[in-house]
C-alpha cells in the first residue's frame, strides 16, 4: 500500500513540473476579452451620445416648427383642404399647443428609454468585466496553488536526498 | 413604437385625424412625421439566473481554494514521511 502511494506521489511530482502554459494562455484570453469589453463600453457611450444629440435636435426642431406655424398662420400662408387660408384663432393655437405637447412627451419618453437602455447596457458590460475578473482570480489562484504544490514537492525531494 | 404610433398619439392629443390636423399645422406635422419612437428592452445580465449561478459557483470555488491552499501547506511533512519510506 505504502509502495503504491509512493509511485502515485512520484507521478504527481513529475506532473506538477508542467501545466503553467495553460494558465498563461487562459489569462491572455481573459485580458483580450476584457479589452474588448472596454472597447464596447466606449462604443456604447459614443452611440448614446449620438442618440441624446438626435433627440435634442428633434426637440429643437419641434420648438422651431411651432414658431414657424404661428408665423405662417399669421401671414395667411396656411390653407385648409378647400384652399381657404387658416386663421390664427385661439382654437388653432390650442390645437397647435396640444400637438406640440404630444410631440414633446414622445421625445421625453424616448430620452428616458435611451437613458435606461444605456444604463443597463453599461451595467451589463461592467457585470461581464467583473465575471472575467473573478475568472482571472481563480486562474491565478489555480496557477499559484500548482506552483506552491510543486515547491512543496521539491522541498520533500530535497530533504529525502539529504537524508 | 413606430412612426404610425407617433401619429396615433398626436391624433389622440389633438382630437382629430393626424392628416387633418397636419393640414393646419404643416411645420409641426412635418417634424412629428419624422419622429421615430423605439421601444427597446435590454435585459440585465446581473438579474439573469445564469449570472447569479456563475457568481455563486465562483464564491464556492474561492472557499474551496482557501481550504486547498492550507491542505497543500500541511501536506509537506506527510509527503516527506511517505516518500522517505
Unreliable runs of chain B: none
Query: Helix/strand-derived class of chain B?
Result: mainly alpha
The number of domains of chain B is: 2
Helical stretch tally of chain B: 4
Low-confidence spans of chain A? none
Instruction: From the alpha carbons, calculate the radius of gyration of chain A and give it in angstroms.
Output: 35 Å
Write down the overall geometry of chain B: rod-shaped
Strand content of chain B: under 5%
Helix count of chain A equals 3
> Strand content of the residues of chain A, in percent?
under 5%
Average pLDDT figure of chain A:
88
By secondary-structure content and strand pairing, the structural class of chain A works out as: mainly alpha
N to C succession of SSEs of chain B:
HHHH
What is the alpha-carbon Rg of chain B in Å? 33 Å
The largest contact between protein chains, plus residue counts on each side, is: A-B, 58 and 50 residues
The count of DSSP E runs of length 2 or more, i.e. the number of strands of chain A, is 0
**What's the β-strand tally of chain B?**
0
Report on the biggest sheet of chain A: none
Instruction: Give the overall average pLDDT of chain B.
Output: 88
Distance between the termini of chain A: 23 Å
The helix content of chain A is over 70%
